[in-house]
Specification:
alpha/beta; globular; Cyclin A, domain 1; single chain; two-stranded antiparallel sheet
Length: about 280
């Protein structure tokens, strides 16, 4: 047997690289500690993006430029961020047509745009619990509770399911406080925030509890009864309230802030939403 002897001297050239790796690891650890402290202290992430490099195809960009009002209100820098996020969303989610409907790129872009709008203030914006987006022409029968739905989030199947008829109506009428896409994406975000421990989820949980606490305040409850500001469905349970609240936040921000300023501020912090005039 041939034995090859080696000495430690042959590997001394690796020492500087080993030190560099250790220093980089320690630096990354310190940054994460600082990042978590910053997010907890200021209720927002220190960085939402490390880099932005993806762009939409011209036809996709044309859809959001001409049909998605939120995009037009963003700054040039924010538009590049939005394109990057939407491009990733379209590449990573699988869209599936159900029933008698022809799935088009426009439909994918608009659904993705609503999702990216709702998560625009977050560092973690990918909706990790959603792999599939199922699109029906209109209301569909759901096996979850044996009834017809306009939309639902099914965590077991990792699927967001939408009636295109009601989704399209929701985004086209931008001031009626009814938006199916916002509603269902918020449900997915709620569950993700319960299951995760990242800085976005921690902030979401903190502000969600602040909102629920507000709903137990006697003065707020009296104002809710007096104004009938939120539609009745909002009070089905705490999760439906949050989904409805998101619809009101995006479609009637001034009304919400005037009527319930503390709830508005908590929602703004929950979503880290300080864009497009919000």
């Amino acid at each position: 047997m041939l034995l090859i002897q080696t000495s430690d001297e042959n590997f001394t050239w690796l020492a500087p690289y080993a030190y560099l790796i250790v220093l980089l690891g320690f630096g990354f650890f310190l940054f994460r500690v600082f990042e978590n402290w910053y997010a907890d202290r200021y209720d927002r992430p220190f960085f939402r993006h490390y880099w932005v490099y993806r762009k939409l195809k011209p036809a996709q960009l044309s859809v959001i430029e001409n049909e998605f009002e939120f995009y037009s209100k963003l700054t040039k820098k924010e538009r590049l961020q939005f394109q990057h996020r939407l491009s990733r969303f379209l590449a990573e989610k699988k869209f599936i047509a159900r029933g008698e409907i022809v799935l088009t790129d426009r439909m994918k872009v608009l659904i993705g745009a609503v999702g990216c709008m709702v998560s625009f203030g977050r560092k973690n914006y990918e909706y990790d619990l959603i792999d599939y987006i199922l699109i029906y022409p209109e209301e569909f029968f759901s096996n979850i509770n044996d009834s017809y739905h306009k939309g639902e989030f099914n965590p077991r199947e990792r699927a967001l399911v939408l009636s295109w008829k009601h989704f399209e109506k929701g985004y086209k009428i931008s001031n009626d406080k009814l938006n199916l896409g916002i509603h269902e994406f918020m449900h997915a975000m709620q569950l993700e925030s319960k299951q995760s421990r990242d800085i976005d989820s921690n902030r979401f949980s903190k502000q969600f509890q602040n909102i629920l606490k507000q709903l137990t305040d006697d003065e707020v409850r009296a104002r809710l009864d007096e104004t009938k500001f939120f539609r009745n469905y909002a009070f089905t349970n705490q999760y439906e309230f949050m989904a409805v609240l998101a619809e009101y936040f995006f479609e009637a921000p001034e009304e919400l802030e005037n009527q319930f300023p503390v709830i508005y501020e908590a929602t703004q912090k929950l979503l880290n939403f300080r864009y497009a005039g919000y």
